[in-house]
Amino acid sequence: MKRVLKWVGIGVGVLAGLIVLGLVGVYFSSQSRLTKAYDVPQASLVIPSDPESIENGKHIFQFRGCEACHGENLEGKVYLDDPAVGKVISSNLTTGAGGVGSAMTDSDWVRAIRHGIRPDGTGYLFMPSTEFFYLSDEDLGDVIAYIKSAPPVDNEMPPSSLSFVGRILMTLVKDITFIPAELIPHDAARPTPPEVGITPEYGAYLTQSCHVCHGLTMSGGVIPGMPSSWPPAPNLTFGAGSTLPTWTEADFINAMRTGLTPSGSMLRSEFMPWTSYQFMSDNELKAVWAYLQALPEIPYGNR
Ligand code: HEC
Ligand code: HEC
After folding, report:
1. Under 8 Å between Cβ of 251 and 262
2. What pLDDT digit, counting tens, does each position of 155-173 carry?
3. Ligand 2 in reach of 277 Cβ (< 6 A)
4. By C-alpha distance, which of 262, 259, 289, 264 is closest to 275?
5. What is the dihedral of CA 271, 276, 280, 285, to 10 degrees?
6. Could you tell me the distance, in angstroms and rounded to a whole number, from the CA of residue 234 to the centre of ligand 2?
7. Contact 91 CB / ligand 1 (< 6 Å)
8. How many CA atoms lie within 13 A of 293 on its CB side?
9. pLDDT tens-digit series, residues 88-138
10. Is the C-alpha dihedral spanning 54, 158, 40, 113 positive or negative?
């Protein structure tokens, strides 16, 4: 009996040792990713300051979802505090107390929004720059013009942080990262933005963010990385399982503005962020509709 207990004791000890080693490994592996500096050259965008550009920058800031995270007055907020991920705290972008506004150069703004990197070259946590890498020089310039024009708001908050569970997830699951800079093709040639118009090409430019949930092909399905309480994303192509073939353009615009679908159900804004998309102009929503209609018809769930 004593011998059995001794071996059990040794087994438990070895196991505990391996777990500690594993956790130390997770810590150092995630730490080296969190502190990695990206070598992205200084940007030379000319930032406008005329009222029209600032107004357009505000429009983009609203419909691209920046406002939903950074707040109506750009004051920032605790967006999510969940032990499974960490503290997602969107920065105060103004020049008020706790804001980053006074310290940022034009090049810093560009590198932050387009590449997801801090002035020291390390990657921001959670800030979804993967969606904004494709913004044209003109649109990005206008957004920065708007941010720089914002009145100061005092709002001091701690920085964002990744929980240990978040570190484990990011270390063990290949497709999960909370550092968007890891996914951005920093050295690739700048994509050429399409001309503004009611065209599928311009619609595609406006819908970078939809793919996160509706999938690369837009055919929908269960959204990877979201809690199981989330509904799957519907098929937005006109393929099998999609309701869109029964929609008119006016139905689509109405759904994106009010959340109300032609069947009478409401799109829940906590899952489907129409409260940001509602700010798109009629022509922008028409371009998105033209893009959806032009997509290959793919059956539901082939993300
Ligand atoms: C899902 C929420 C979310 C959205 C959408 C979002 N951000 Fe952020 N943003 C964040 C978080 C969180 C941080 C802080 C990251 C950190 O602390 O590492 C951040 C950081 C930033 C920074 C760097 C500020 C600093 O602390 O140095 C800028 C600039 C910025 N965001 C601008 C934008 C703009 C412009 C848009 C839209 C085009 C946008 N953000 C959309 C969450 C978001
Ligand atoms: C954060 C995830 C997310 C993003 C981003 C997102 N959607 Fe959705 N979308 C959903 C979910 C989930 C539903 C189902 C919502 C419900 O049933 O309440 C939905 C429903 C819809 C519907 C209704 C379809 C139907 O058959 O009823 C349309 C249309 C739609 N989304 C269009 C878009 C467009 C266009 C974009 C980008 C501009 C977009 N969505 C971005 C998650 C998302």
Report:
1. yes
2. 999 999 999 999 998 999 8
3. yes
4. 259
5. 0
6. 7
7. yes
8. 15
9. 999 999 999 999 999 999 999 999 999 999 999 999 999 999 999 999 999
10. negative
Measure CA 174 to chain center: 18
CB 85 within 8 A of CB 166: yes
Residue with tokens 């959670």: 126
Angstrom distance (rounded) from CA 91 to CA 156: 9
Kindly give, in sequence order, each residue whose CB lies less than 8 Å from that of residue 173, ignoring residues fewer than 6 positions away.
none
Cβ neighbours around 80 below 10 Å, total: 15
Within 13 Å, how many C-alpha atoms sit on residue 226's CB side? Answer: 16
Give me the amino acid identity at 209: S
User: Burial letters for 116-125: b for 16+ Cβ neighbours within 10 Å, e otherwise?
Assistant: bbbeeebbbb
Structure tokens at 86: 């960490």
CA distance 293 to 262: 17
Cα–Cα distance for residue pair 206/283, rounded to 1 Å: 11
Spatial distance between the Cα atoms of 221 and 232, rounded to a whole number of angstroms: 5
Owner of token pair 């592996």? 29
The two structure tokens encoding residue 272: 């489907």
The tokens 């309480």 sit on which residue? 229
pLDDT at 5: 84
pLDDT at 3: 83
Asked if residue 236 has its Cβ within 6 Å of ligand 2, the reply is: yes
Residue nearest to atom 39 of ligand 2 (CA): 210
Residues in the chain: 303
The tokens of 226 are what? 């979201």
